[in-house]
Amino acid sequence: MNQNKYPHLTSPIQLGRVTFRNRIFSAPMGATDITADCCPGPRTQGFYELRAKGGAASVTVSELVVHPETDASHMLHLNLETVGCLAAHTFVADAIRRHGSVPSIELSHSGQYAGTYMADKNKKASLCQWGPSDGVRPDGRPVKQLSKEQIADIVKAYGDNAALCKRAGYEMIMVHAGHGWLLHQFLSPYLNHRTDEYGGSLENRIRIVREVLASVRAAVGEGFPIEVRLSGSELFDGGYGIEDGIKIAQAVEEYVDLIHVSAGSYQFGFFNTTPPMFDPHGVNVWLAAEIKKHVKKPVATLGALSDPAQMEQIIAEGKADVVYMARQLLADPFLPNKVVAGMEDRVVKCLRCYTCMAERPVTFTRRCAVNPIIGREIEGMEVTPALRSKKVLVVGAGVAGLKAAVTAAQRGHKVVLCEKSDKVGGILKSEQAIPFKYEMYQLGLVLERQALDEGVEIRLNTNVTPEYVEKEKPDAVILAVGSKPFVPQLPGIDSNNVVIVNDYYLNKEKVADEVVVLGGGLAGCECAVHLGMEGKKVHLVEMRDTLAPDCNIRHRPILMKKVAEYTTAHTEYAGLRVTADGLVCKDKDGNEVLVPGKTVICAVGQKANRADVDALRLSAPFVREVGDCIRPANITKAIYEGYHAALDI
C-alpha cells in the first residue's frame, strides 16, 4: 500500500449533499468545438472527460451563457428549443461522471465583453455590449446600461439555466462573478456608476449577485452544490481591494456551498487572473486565505498551482479547502491519480507558456505545448498498442526524441534511445539556470523517468552513424537530432567574454554585471529578462524592428512589459564586432554605436542539424524526422511530432 504523502489534498470533501473524492478540482476552461448553435460538440465532451479520467474530483464545463439576448458571445448555450442541445450537455455530464468525477458547469454573462470569442470580427463589432453603466470599452466599443427590466430577466435566466443544467445531469453549479464579466462589472466601483439600487454603495453593487444566487438556489433546491467564483481583489487602482472582497464573500455565502476565490479583471489584461511564468506559483493564494478567515463556508483557491507539495501545504495550513487547476490539468490531466498513487515525480508540469490560451483566438481550437492529446481527445485518450512489436531506434534525446521513445514503448515496441551527449534533455538542459523556465528543464527529467518506466533502453555518449544503424538493424528510426546554435561570424565572437545562450547554465559565473544580449527573439528576450531580474544591467540588441516575433500572442505582451522593465532594448541594431567593452553595432542610419557590456550573450537562433539527418534518412524501412532537425521551432512542435511519429510505426 502506498504511503499517502498528501493526506489533506487527497481527502474527500462534502459540499451540499455531494461528496467529492479529493480536493483537486478542474477549473473552467472554454469548450473546444462549440457548434454553430452553441452546443457542445464531441471534441468538447472529450476535452472535459480526460480530466475526469485523470482523477479530478470535479470538472467544470465553461462557459454557459445564460442570456443570449444581451450576451451574443459564441460560448455554450442550453435551451429546449435547439434540437439536441440538452442531449449534448447530458452526454458531457455523463462523460465526466462515469470516471467518478462530479460534473459542474459555469453559468456566465460576458456583459460588456460580449463577442469576445466570436470568430467573425465584423459581426462582433456590430454587437451591442451591455453593462451596469453606459461607457466605452478599452478597445473603443460603446457599452450600454442595462435597464432594471433587463436585469430582472437576466436574474431569472440564471435560475432557468440552472434548472436545465440539473436536468442535463450536472451536479454542481458555478456562478461566475469574477474576472470582469457582467456580475463582476456590477461589483466593480470602476465600472459600475449606477445611481439606483444596483449602484453606489457596496451593498447595492452586490445586490444583483445575491439575486442571481437566490434565483439559482430556488431552481436547484437545497443540498445541490452551488459555487460562486469571485475575484478576491481587482488588483488595479480604482477597483476594489481585498477588504471589499471579504465583504462580498460574506454577503453571498448564505446562498453557496463553496466560495471560489480568483483574482483580477480582464479590464486590464488577464495576467493577474492567469499568472505568467514570471510570477511565483500560487501568487493569488493569499486572497483565498484572507477571505477564509472571515467566512464559514469552504473556500477554493487557484493560480499557477502545479506542485502537489505546495497544494498540500495550502490545505494543511487552512489557507483554502479546495485547489483548482486549469492549465496544469491540461499539461497533465492525470496529476490527481499520480498524487494518489505516490507518483508525483512523474507529473508533467505546466510551462505557463500560454500556448493553450493563444491557440483559441488564432484557430478557435485548444492546444497544449506538452500534451499532444489536448483538444484532440476523441482521436484517442490512450496510446493504442501496435499489432506487432518492432525494434525502434530513436536518435537524439531532446524533447522530441524522448516523447517519441516513450510513446513507441507504450505501444509495445522495443525502443533504443541514443544520445551523443552525457545527459538527456537536449536544449531543455539550458533552461535549468532560469528560474521562471525551470519547468522546461523538468520536462526533460520527467520524460526520461517515463522512458525508463516504459522499458526504453537509453544509451548516452553514443554517436549514431549509418554503420551503427546497420549493426542494430531496427525496423524504424526516428531522427530527433535537434539543432545547434547559430553563431554569426563577427570579429571577437570567440572571445572569452562571449557566452552562447544554450551554454549559459554552464557559464553563469562568467557573466558580468553589465551584459549585452545579442538576439531579440524569444530565447534572447527571456534570457535578458532573467539577467535583469538578477540585478544585472542588460542591453538587448536585435537587428529587426520587432522583438520576439516568434512569441505567441498571449505570452508576448507580458514578455514585452518585462523587457521594458528589466532591459534596455535596441532594435534595428546589427552587430559588427565584439570588444572587451561590449558589442559594436550599426544602427538603422548606418552609424557605429558601442552597446556597453563586459559580457556578450549570443542568442541569435538555432539551425537544424541537417547533415546528421541526411546521413541517416535512408537507414531503415521506416524513417521519420521530428523536432528541431526539420526546422527549429518550439516545444509544442517537438512534442507533437515525436508523439505522432511513434503512433505511425
Q: Topology of this structure?
A:
Blueprint: E1 13-15, E2 18-20, E3 24-30, H1 42-53, E4 58-65, H2 85-97, E5 102-108, H3 121-126, E6 129-131, E7 135-136, E8 142-145, H4 148-168, E9 172-177, H5 182-187, H6 202-220, E10 226-231, H7 242-252, E11 258-262, H8 285-292, E12 299-301, H9 308-316, E13 322-325, H10 327-331, H11 335-340, H12 355-363, E14 391-395, H13 399-410, E15 414-418, H14 438-453, E16 457-459, H15 466-472, E17 476-479, E18 483-485, E19 498-500, E20 514-518, H16 522-533, E21 537-542, H17 555-566, E22 568-571, E23 574-579, E24 582-586, E25 592-596, E26 599-602, E27 606-608, H18 610-616, E28 622-625, H19 635-647
Parallel strand pairs: 3-4, 3-13, 4-5, 5-9, 6-8, 9-10, 10-11, 11-12, 12-13, 14-15, 14-17, 15-16, 17-28, 19-26, 20-21, 20-26, 21-22
Antiparallel strand pairs: 1-2, 7-8, 18-27, 23-24, 24-25
Helix pairs in contact: 1-2, 2-4, 4-6, 6-7, 13-14, 13-19, 16-17
Q: Give the proportion of residues in helices.
A: 25-40%
Give the neighbour order of strands across the main sheet.
3-4-5-9-10-11-12-13
- Span of the ends, CA to CA: 37 Å
Q: Give average pLDDT, whole number.
A: 95
Question: Major β-sheet, in short?
Answer: 8 strands, parallel, barrel
Low-confidence stretches: none
Structural class: alpha/beta
Number of helices: 19
Radius of gyration: 26 Å
Q: Approximately how much beta-strand content do the residues carry?
A: 15-25%
Q: How many strands? A: 28
Q: Which overall shape is indicated by the principal axes computed on the Cα atoms?
A: globular
Structure overview:
The protein is of the alpha/beta class and 649 residues long. It is 31% helix and 19% strand. The protein is built from 19 helices and 28 strands. The strands form seven sheets. It has an eight-stranded parallel barrel, surrounded by seven helices. The chain has a five-stranded parallel sheet with strand order 16-15-14-17-28, covered by helices on one side. The protein is globular, with a radius of gyration of 26 Å. The two termini are 37 Å apart. The mean pLDDT is 95.
